[in-house]
Write a structure and sequence with these properties.
single chain, globular, 6 strands, 39% helix
Length: 137
C-alpha cells in the first residue's frame, strides 16, 4: 500500500459523483496552492478500493484520507487533515475543542449516513452511488 506522493501532506478520497463532495473538493483545490493534497476520486473509472486495502463500501461510508505514513483517517479527522494541509491549521485545531469536536462528529455522521439521499441518489427507499466506473457497495 503506497502513501501520498512526495510533498503531499494528505491524500483525500472523495466521491466524485456526489455534488456536495465535488463542490467541497473544488474549494480545497483552490486553496491548495502548494500542492499539499492529492485528490483521488473513488467514483472515477478504474478506481480500485482493494488497491488501497479497503472496500468500496468503506470509502463510501465516510470520507477517507491517507497520511504520509500510509495510515488512514476518516470522517471529521480527514477534513481536519485536509484543511490543515491547505493552511487552516488553527481552524483544524479549534475543531478538536471538547464539545465542538463531538458536535462536528455527530453532524458529519448524520450527513454521511444520509449523503446519497441528500444528493438525490435514491430511488424510493433504494440508495446507490452513481455508476462512474465504480461498483456499488
Amino acid at each position: 500500500m503506497e502513501s501520498p506522493a512526495p510533498g503531499c501532506e494528505v491524500e483525500v478520497f472523495y466521491d466524485g459523483a456526489c455534488p456536495v463532495c465535488v463542490r467541497e473538493m473544488g474549494v480545497v483545490r483552490k486553496l491548495d496552492r502548494r500542492a499539499r493534497v492529492r485528490f483521488t476520486d473513488i467514483a472515477a473509472p478504474g478506481f480500485s478500493a482493494a488497491a488501497h486495502g479497503k472496500t468500496h463500501e468503506e470509502f463510501m461510508r465516510r470520507m477517507q484520507a491517507r497520511l504520509p505514513d500510509g495510515s488512514f483517517v476518516d470522517g471529521v479527522e480527514a477534513f481536519r487533515r485536509v484543511y490543515a494541509a491547505v493552511g487552516f491549521r488553527r481552524l483544524a485545531a479549534l475543531s478538536r475543542v471538547p464539545g465542538l469536536a463531538q458536535a462536528l462528529d455527530w453532524g458529519y455522521a448524520k450527513f454521511a449516513a444520509n449523503r446519497l439521499r441528500l444528493t438525490g441518489r435514491c430511488d424510493g427507499d433504494v440508495c446507490a452511488p452513481a455508476a462512474r466506473g465504480a461498483a456499488p457497495p
